[in-house]
Design a protein that fits this description.
264 residues; alpha/beta; Barwin-like endoglucanases; Aminopeptidase
Amino acid sequence: MQHTSTAAAYDARILKLRLPEQDSLKNAAERCSANLVSLTNIGRAVGQQVRIKRGDDPRFVAVYTVNQRNPDDPSRADIVRAGLAGRKRLGTSDELDAIVEATVLDAPGEPAGVRFFEVADDAGDQSYFVVIAPHGGMIEQHTDEQATEVISQFRTAGFPASLWMCKGFGDETKGASDRWHITSTDLHPASFPLLGSIMSRRFFYGVAFHGFARKEGEANIYIGGAARCVRFHAVEQAHDVFLRQQSNRLIAMLLTPALENLPP
């Protein structure tokens, strides 16, 4: 398994959004705007992720996607803007002082506490199958375990397979999802280097695991994507198997037979 970390930061003042220019960020808990020069100075850019820590209470720390440049005068280099939901991610509705850090990831291996890290298990020379879990740990619980089970069963069956996932953990101050959830389509390889190494090549097949807050009347498992043959075989088995066995092994059981019948 591999891991990565780097270091760079700047002091910032987090202000309310400037409306109506920033209407798109009003309800965006995990997105903000920032000064382009300040971002460049720490090796970051719009579209990438940063870690922001409250200046008066370092217990409050979270990851954000810098979704756009500030509408302010460029000379106001320390300004970061976020909506109410974005500021509440740091435990307050007020404007506040903060520290913006380029490194969003912790080193894996810490046994407990607030932490966020990426993991890859990749031989680097196969492009047949990849499985990812961008919201593992306690962000979307069990998704990383499901991905790990899939890669284990694929390799046992003799199929080449690669794995990438992130794991996040919170505490009583802020839960993992409130701190670390980043919309998967926003994830940038500059902020997640191991993801970048996986993304540097195209795979024939890929599966991503996500969790959701199930409401009454909804299904337990949803399967989508463009691989119709995989989806058909999985859906065909999902309902009956789920009633008998709710486990990480279930997902691997659904996917492995489907992919075994696909061409290499």
